[in-house]
Recover the amino acids of this structure.
């Protein structure tokens, strides 16, 4: 009885040692120039068809994957993909001897040994929530002008409808934001260690939800690093993620990690408000000074 009580107390005070969630990445690509979308466990992950897709934040040992080609004449691929914790596995879409497209595993490496994202590779955080898409419907209306001879004029209008499945509804907002990024704004220019372009608001909200959904502090820090390591953030976005952490040490560790993945690093001072202790601010400043 005493032994069982000790074990229970140990698990209560050190839950992260055995119960820590472990994540993995999945890369799917093709050299056949046939764009595709990835549907995992019934949920489409990439909003538009691509030829190289990386999905991060996977926390299950396996998943049902469906590859749907942009060319509807091509048959879909259905396969169960097995994932090892803390690894990044790469699968290629290629033709077999019968000329049929199949999905085959190429390799698997530990996350800390994974290579930087390839050029043209699109990265998405795994989601279980359907994304939003927009579809355009063309409607033609014929109007009688009342002119001699009964001349009529046909007009075509475009109507946009919203469906569940993709996240392109925010395209105009992202385009507008990218325009501002190209223009540049006072006090918002990338400094040393800055990255090219920050995440759009919709993608960042999904990232926040993914991080906050984790129960253990160690899991939150792991998935936060995973997301930031493959993306670019603004200082205010880094601060929002920091505020999801309970422990000061986790906030400091994440702030250091996110520095080289931050677009407007000259504004990094705004992170000071996320700390409780002056010593943490001093530690972060020393870290930044060494980087500069």
């Amino acid at each position: 009885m005493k032994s069982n009580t000790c074990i229970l107390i140990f698990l209560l005070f050190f839950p992260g040692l055995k119960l820590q969630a472990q994540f993995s990445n999945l890369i799917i690509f093709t050299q056949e120039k046939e764009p595709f979308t990835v549907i995992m466990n019934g949920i489409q992950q990439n909003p538009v068809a691509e030829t190289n897709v990386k999905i991060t934040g996977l926390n299950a040992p396996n998943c049902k994957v469906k590859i749907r080609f942009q060319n509807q004449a091509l048959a879909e691929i259905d396969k169960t993909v097995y994932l090892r914790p803390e690894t990044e596995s790469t699968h290629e879409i290629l033709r077999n001897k019968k000329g049929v497209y199949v999905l085959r595993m190429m390799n698997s490496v530990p996350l800390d040994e994974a290579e930087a994202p390839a050029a043209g590779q699109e990265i998405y955080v795994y989601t279980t929530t359907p994304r939003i898409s927009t579809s355009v419907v063309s409607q033609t209306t014929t109007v009688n002008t009342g002119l001699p001879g009964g001349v009529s004029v046909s007009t075509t209008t475009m109507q946009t409808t919203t469906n569940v499945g993709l996240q392109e509804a925010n395209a105009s907002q992202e385009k507008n934001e990218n325009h501002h990024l190209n223009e540049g704004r006072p006090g918002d220019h990338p400094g040393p260690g800055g990255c090219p372009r920050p995440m759009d608001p919709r993608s960042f909200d999904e990232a926040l939800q993914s991080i906050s959904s984790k129960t253990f502090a160690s899991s939150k820090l792991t998935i936060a690093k995973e997301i930031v390591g493959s993306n670019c953030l603004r200082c205010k976005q880094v601060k929002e993620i920091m505020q999801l952490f309970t422990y000061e040490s986790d906030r400091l560790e994440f702030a250091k990690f996110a520095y080289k993945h931050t677009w407007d690093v000259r504004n990094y001072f705004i992170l000071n408000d996320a700390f409780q202790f002056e010593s943490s601010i001093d530690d972060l400043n020393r870290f930044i000074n060494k980087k500069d």
